[in-house]
Design brief:
Protein name: Stage 0 sporulation protein A homolog
GO molecular function: phosphorelay response regulator activity; transcription cis-regulatory region binding
CATH topology of the largest domain: Rossmann fold
Keywords: DNA-binding, Phosphoprotein, Transcription, Transcription regulation, Two-component regulatory system
GO cellular component, one term: protein-DNA complex
Helix content: 40-55%
Order of helices and strands: EHEHEEEHEHEHEEEEHEHHEE
Radius of gyration: 21 Å
Number of helices: 8
InterPro entries: CheY-like_superfamily, OmpR/PhoB-type_DNA-bd, Sig_transdc_resp-reg_receiver, WalR-like, WH-like_DNA-bd_sf
CATH superfamily of the largest domain: Response regulator
Length: about 230
């Protein structure tokens, strides 16, 4: 059962939306303020957030930024404002759809299901962690939706870390894995440099990702503070 957080200050409208979503088999939670929504987002991961732009103690755009710092939860804006600039701003912040009030609940449900279908396909193709999105097949990576420029060795390291979360990868294991088909050799010094460069490209004040295990190697900590 997919969990949906509905952030809507109009209690009657929010309750009606939740009621209809639950008839469709979704599990919903309704909150009516920016503060409440922030707490719920910190408490757990949601499979979708439906977010009103105009809240009594804040705006939905600021909340969307907070959500996007945490993960790539499917996000739909729900608002009475249909100005092009606001709609564009919503999409620039990573919204998956933008629904204006008043709305037809049957159409809203269709659009919610469409977003779920799109994001499920996307998640199968992408490795998503914190503010990183990595496509191993295309050998591309983005941070906060901006492309990362990685060398082949850095990308190979990133792939090894992402596919072994929470495991200590010894320097020996990494060195053996970094041999390529042409037999090009990566020594200890080169490994240290490449890990350092990769770390500098992917980490920031929010996510560290790679933890050094002194005397052993490295560990991919994912979204946890390293």
């Amino acid at each position: 059962m997919k969990s949906i957080l509905v952030v809507e200050d109009d209690e009657m409208l929010g309750a009606g939306l939740c009621y209809n979503l639950e008839l469709e088999g979704f599990k919903t939670t309704l909150v009516q303020s920016f503060e409440e929504a922030g707490k719920k987002i910190e408490e757990k991961s949601w499979e979708m957030v439906i977010l009103d732009v105009n809240l009594p103690d804040g705006d939905g755009f600021s909340l969307a930024k907070k959500i996007r710092l945490k993960d790539r939860t499917p996000l739909i804006f729900l608002t009475a404002c249909d100005l092009d600039d606001d709609i564009l701003k919503g999409f620039e912040l990573g919204a998956d759809d933008y629904i204006t009030k008043p709305f037809n609940i049957k159409i809203v449900i269709k659009r919610i299901n469409a977003v779920f279908r799109r994001t499920e396909v996307s998640r199968k193709e992408l490795f998503i962690c914190g503010n990183l999105e990595i496509d191993f097949e295309k050998r591309t990576a983005t941070k906060n939706e901006k492309p990362l420029v990685l060398t082949p060795t850095e990308f190979k390291l990133l792939q090894l870390f992402c596919k072994n979360p929470g495991k200590v990868l010894t320097r020996k294991m990494l060195l053996e894995s970094l041999w390529d088909n042409e037999g090009n050799f990566v020594d200890e010094h080169t490994l240290t440099i490449n890990v350092s460069r990769l770390r500098s490209k992917i980490s920031d004040d929010t996510f560290a990702y790679i933890k050094t295990i002194y005397g052993m190697g490295y560990e991919w900590t994912g979204e946890k503070d390293a």
